[in-house]
Each structure stands twice: as structure tokens, then as C-alpha cells.
Design goal:
Blueprint lengths: L1 H13 L13 H11 L18 H31 L5 H34 L6 H8 L10 H15 L13 H12 L1 H4 L19 H4 L7 H7 L7 H6 L11 H13 L5 H21 L12 H6 L3 H8 L10 H21 L7 H31 L1
């Protein structure tokens, strides 16, 4: 305790050098960020997200990072496990984990370096405090990446997500789009050969293909149902249980649905994420997938035959609705709005996956699209509530 008081005293004294009019005033946001990281603050937020209890924004971000840690740990193990299959070698669980971390850590470090540079630069230029929101953004981005994503592309993608997805709108609380999804969408369209296809999802020898569960029905040799195509795959086990457990190719953090569900329960329990948005998204997905299964009898598109449960377990749908769709700034805020917002994310995910074979993973574009409409949804929900109250009091 004495050491912390001593450190706090040093920070308070050095803070005078960063005050307005002093030599280091330009670097005040950096000093302020250091102070708030080490010690609690009594400042109130002037823009969203607003937390109306004793939990400050710093702790909100901290809880989200805690919920993401299991996805990181399993993602590292899965990379090693898939590589062992690809190279036909035998490793222990710990050895697979260490092998996977050799791919995960560089991506994580580069993401945080890029994010910190952008955040600190804009804080100094605009002379506003550094917001901890970029920590969650930088924790999410690596989990949406393939394990062998080039690090220079990760650096550029992270910078694009933070600058274009957040900073040009004024920073945290004023952005329209989820910055992590903005980064992932930019990388998909800017570097398609590194972000999609069937050779990037398993770290193996040159020429080794590691098709994801979504890419198999999206590119069938000849028309068949998605279930048959997945069951005929010989590289990996695409059974429902294994897709749930996550020992399949995919982005680093998206494959293990059990850990994602535990993360969802944790975030709902601590009051950060909205269960309404999650449940509505699943309902929208099941509704649209069931409708498309009926329409599949009149089409040769294998993507229309993907069952609702398969849609739920393959790809990054669950990861997206738990950690991205519920983001407190860019999602709907009214309770009724959350049902509409989430339902439409589920509907659009299935539509994008099924109708556009060139982009079989649709949840990220679905969330970004609904980010644009979230304020409009809330506007009409509030307007409707006012109208109903006026009618009752008339």
C-alpha cells in the first residue's frame, strides 16, 4: 500500500508538468492514461457508453477481456492441433498450445502496438484523454483473424478499424460502426487471398488445404446437401459435436462454441451484454434458415440446405452476436430495439451466407449493416412509446 501511495504521489507531482501552458502539455493524454490505468478515477463519462451503477468503464472493458481469455487459450491449442494433423506429427496438449501461441502472440502484440499508436496519436492531436475502449477492440481483432495472417496486414487492418471505425467519428462513444468488425471487413476486402479461401485456416505445409465448414457447401464440386458434403469431408471431423467443441479450421477465437457461450453467460451476469440481442439473433437465424431449407427444394444452391443448428455452430455467428453485436455503443439501446436489432442480424447473416457464395461468412457484414440502423430503430421505438403513452393519457 505504501508503495502505491508513493507511486500515486509521484504521478500527482509529475502531472503539473503536463498541465495547460507547461512544456509537456501536449502529452497530457498520455499522462492521464497512465494515471487512470494504475488508479481509479471519479470522473463521469460525457459520452457513451454510460454505465449507471458503481462499475466504471475501465472495469467494463476488463470484464470483456476476461471473457475473451478462454477463446485465446483454446484458439492457440486448436492451431497446434490442426498443424499436428496437417504434418502428421504427434504432440502433447501442452506442445500444441505452445505451437499455437507462437502464432497468436505476434498477432496480439502487433494489434496492440498498432492500436496504441493510433489511440495515443489522436489523443495528443485532439487533446482528449485516452479511452480504454481500444483495449477491447485490440483484444477482439486477433480472434477474428486466421492464424497465419501476415503481421503487416494485421497492423494496417487494426489502424484502419480504429481510425475509420472510431476516430473519424470523434472517438469512443460517438462511433457508428464496431471498430473490430471494421478492421476485419477491411482486411477481408483489401487482402482477400489471405483472409478467405481453403489454404489459410490450418497452419500446415505449402499447398495443404484446410477448408472451413462454411466453405465446403459454398464451393461444392457438384450439388448436394450441406449435411452430406460436411459428412463426406475427410480432412477434419465436421460433426455437430466437433463443430460445437471447435477442433476445426476457423478464425482464432470463433471455433469453440462452448467457451463462447460461457463468455455470454458471464457478460450477461455482470450486466455488460444484452441477452435480448443474443436471443433475438438466434431466433432470426433459425427463422430464416428454416425458410431457406424449404426453398432449397427449388434450387441447386447447397448453402440453402444448411440447417438452423448448423448455421448456429459453423462460422463466427455465435462469436459475433456475443462479443460484437452486444457492444454498448453501436448496438440498439432500447429493450424493444434490441429485439429488432438482433433479429435482423440473424436474418441478414443467413441471407448473406446463402445468397452470396463468394462471402459464406455473413455475420460481420450483418452486424455492421445493423450498426447503421441501430439509432433509427431506437428513434422509432422511443417515438412509438411516447405515442402510446399520450394515447393512454388522452
Amino acid at each position: 500500500m505504501d508503495n502505491m501511495n508513493f507511486l500515486k504521489k509521484i504521478l500527482e507531482q509529475s502531472g503539473k508538468l503536463f498541465e495547460k501552458g507547461k512544456f509537456l502539455s501536449w502529452a497530457h493524454p498520455i499522462w492521464e492514461a497512465t494515471d487512470t490505468i494504475l488508479f481509479s478515477t471519479d470522473k463521469q463519462t460525457s459520452s457513451g457508453p454510460h454505465i449507471r451503477d458503481n462499475m466504471d468503464i475501465k472495469r467494463v472493458m476488463f470484464f470483456v477481456v476476461i471473457a475473451l481469455i478462454p477463446c485465446y487459450l483454446f484458439g492457440a491449442y486448436n492451431i497446434g492441433y490442426l498443424n499436428a494433423i496437417a504434418t502428421d506429427v504427434s504432440r502433447s496438449m501442452f506442445e500444441n498450445f505452445i505451437f499455437g501461441m507462437s502464432y497468436v502472440l505476434p498477432i496480439l502484440i502487433i494489434t496492440f502496438v498498432s492500436g496504441a499508436i493510433c489511440e495515443l496519436t489522436f489523443s495528443v492531436i485532439r487533446r482528449h484523454e485516452v479511452n480504454e475502449g481500444f483495449l477491447v477492440t485490440c483484444a477482439l481483432i486477433p480472434l477474428t483473424m486466421p492464424p497465419d495472417a501476415p503481421l503487416w496486414q494485421v497492423f494496417i487492418g487494426t489502424a484502419f478499424g480504429i481510425i475509420i471505425g472510431k476516430e473519424i467519428f470523434g472517438g469512443v462513444g460517438t462511433n457508428i460502426f464496431n471498430p473490430a468488425l471494421t478492421a476485419r471487413a477491411f482486411m477481408y476486402f483489401a487482402f482477400p487471398t489471405k483472409m478467405s479461401g481453403d489454404k489459410i485456416w490450418a497452419v500446415g505445409p505449402d499447398g495443404y488445404t484446410g477448408a472451413t465448414a462454411l466453405s465446403i457447401p459454398a464451393n461444392p464440386v457438384e450439388y448436394d446437401t450441406a449435411s452430406n458434403l460436411l459428412s463426406q469431408a475427410t480432412q477434419f471431423d465436421f460433426s455437430l459435436w466437433n463443430m460445437c467443441w471447435g477442433l476445426i479450421p476457423g478464425s482464432i477465437g470463433e471455433t469453440n462454441k462452448i467457451l463462447i457461450l460461457f463468455g455470454a453467460i458471464f457478460l450477461v451476469y455482470v450486466g455488460i451484454a444484452s441477452w435480448r440481442t443474443m436471443v433475438a439473433s438466434v431466433i432470426g437465424l433459425f427463422f430464416t434458415a428454416s425458410l431457406f431449407n424449404i426453398l432449397a427444394d427449388f434450387s441447386t444452391n447447397a448453402m440453402l440446405t444448411i440447417t438452423p443448428l448448423q448455421h448456429l455452430l459453423i462460422g463466427s455467428f455465435l462469436f459475433g452476436i456475443v462479443f460484437m453485436a452486444t457492444e454498448p455503443v453501436t448496438s440498439a439501446h432500447t429493450n424493444k430495439g434490441k429485439w429488432i436489432y438482433g433479429f435482423m442480424i440473424g436474418v441478414l447473416t443467413v441471407i448473406i451466407r446463402s445468397v452470396n457464395p463468394a462471402y459464406p461468412e455473413g455475420v460481420m457484414l450483418a452486424i455492421l449493416m445493423m450498426n447503421m440502423f441501430a439509432p433509427l430503430i431506437d428513434y422509432y421505438v422511443v417515438k412509438s412509446n411516447i405515442k402510446m403513452r399520450l394515447a393512454r393519457n388522452a
